TrEMBL record:
Annotated protein name in UniProt: Peptide deformylase
Gene3D superfamilies attached to this UniProt entry: Peptide deformylase (3.90.45.10)
GO molecular function, one term: peptide deformylase activity
Keywords for this protein: Hydrolase
Broadest EC class assigned to this enzyme: hydrolase
Pfam families per record: Pep_deformylase
Family in the record: Belongs to the polypeptide deformylase family.
Phylogenetic classification of the source organism: unclassified sequences, metagenomes, ecological metagenomes
EC number: 3.5.1.88
Length: 238
């Protein structure tokens, strides 16, 4: 049987078919690659956008605009106006549970300014105290300053995000006053010793400390403020 043979024109037709098929295949490949690249790039851009937004948000301080205004609102004096129970608007702040400070807060200029002004306020010679909590100056954050009578030089020290984790069973009864409760003092029962944790400003790690005696009383009084509790709430009725 004779084998079929291809003439010259058949070769041309076959060659054209192969070229056209190859070209169409190339177009399909290019279209697929183009669509893939577009989709891939969109996903990459979306990913980096989300990361950027999250990073930007994480770097923002958590102070409210009202708190920022309070911290920055000063004349020639660093002393801050005290919030008192005599004013209903002040009382709503004093009765609120204070929020934790973020690491960004603690590293901010606002935090430095707040500390400077709180120290000046508690050391005000016209109305001195032995401790003060941020809510008492209108800033609802977990920050207290306590005079450490149990340390050489009796320094004032700041304690961000402080929480008392242990109270001794042994109690002591003593008179207390408060800068936010003018012209009043009452006897209050407190634990003689407390153990507490707070965020170290330098390492940004939680550390543990303790206090006894009168210093322990100050810590309990100031930490109460962070929970919306005022010492008069703890006065036992006779």
């Amino acid at each position: 049987m004779m084998q079929p043979t291809l003439n010259f024109f058949s070769y041309i037709i076959l060659f054209r078919f192969v070229c056209e098929s190859g070209y169409k295949f190339k177009l399909k490949i290019d279209t697929f690659a183009n669509n893939f690249n577009k989709t891939f790039m969109k996903r990459v851009l979306a990913y980096f956008f989300i990361v950027f937004v999250m990073a930007s948000c994480s770097k923002k301080v958590t102070f409210t605009q009202s708190e920022i205004d309070i911290i920055n609102n000063r004349d020639s004096s660093l002393i801050m106006p005290l919030f008192t129970v005599d004013d209903p608007a002040d009382t709503s702040v004093l009765r609120a549970v204070a929020a934790d400070l973020s690491e960004t807060d603690i590293q901010s200029d606002l935090f430095k300014a707040l500390k400077e002004r709180m120290l000046a306020t508690v050391q005000d010679t016209t109305n001195e105290g032995v401790g003060i909590a941020a809510p008492q100056v209108g800033v609802s954050k977990r920050l207290v300053i306590v005079q450490r009578f149990d340390k050489p030089g009796e320094p004032f020290e700041f304690y961000p995000n402080i929480r008392i984790i242990e109270y001794s069973d042994e109690k002591q009864l003593g008179k207390e006053g408060c800068l936010s409760v003018p012209n009043r003092s009452e006897e209050v029962e407190r634990s003689k010793r407390v153990v507490f944790t707070y965020l170290d400003e330098n390492s940004l790690k939680m550390v543990e400390d303790s206090a006894e005696g009168f210093t322990a009383v100050i810590f309990q009084h100031e930490v109460d403020h962070l929970e919306g509790v005022i010492y008069i709430d703890r006065v036992k009725t006779k």
